[in-house]
Amino acid sequence: MIKFAIFTLLTPLLWAAPSEQYFDLLKQSPKLHDIQGSHKSGEIEIILDPLQIKEAEGLAMERLLNNEVPLDLAWEWSRIGVVAEDQYLFWIRDGVIFPSGEKGTYDRIVWKSHLKADPGVAILPTVEDNKILLNLNYRHATRSWELEIPRGLVQDGETIKGAAARKLMNETGYRLDDCLLLGTMAVDSGILGSLVPVVACKAVSPADRNTDYSEAILDNVILSMDELESALLKGFYDVPLSDKTQRAKVRDPFLTFALLHLKLRRPKD
To answer: What does pTM read for this prediction?
Structure first.
């Protein structure tokens, strides 16, 4: 077993400090560390001290090497800082102290828009007779057709309601009339650091939708609550189109979150 003290003594050049980008990002974006946490309280504590960050990197690398990960990959996978970014996301690797008191690293992905305001919004639209308006959407990540409620990014300067109205119009052609904030949802709290507001609204005055060039919305589907609950239990719904029937998965977490909130808000008999 490689001991940390011996390893760092033999390979001091590997342990450069995280890039200035990482510390600048933390400084400029308090949301990334405003809850630093305390391992003594059972939380995962973010390390901000450069010397402790160096130690956490070394321990993370040692564990990888002990699991027979090649040296170059172990070094790459243990480096603390901004791992990657594009126009939408930061992939960040933090140095942390676990509740056990052990140091190591933990990755998280953050929407860039979340550093300024809400990263996005999801909308549960209801039409006449309290039916639910959904998108028949092809998702690249899962490579599958999905029945989902409309959602998308909040643009600079937009309110949640303004973003909801824009996304509803673009993706369905319906106009937003009345809006209720149901809550915020952590889509995957194990890796995603952004929280998404979910709203319910009345959708009126249907017209042609104007989807973005990158959207793959084939159609809009209106289901009664009974139809939707049945589809959720089966896990799919066969959408009748003009030339075929398209089977779509029904498992949208934003949809189920919104439906449960609506159910819990109904007056009890």
So the answer is: 0.86
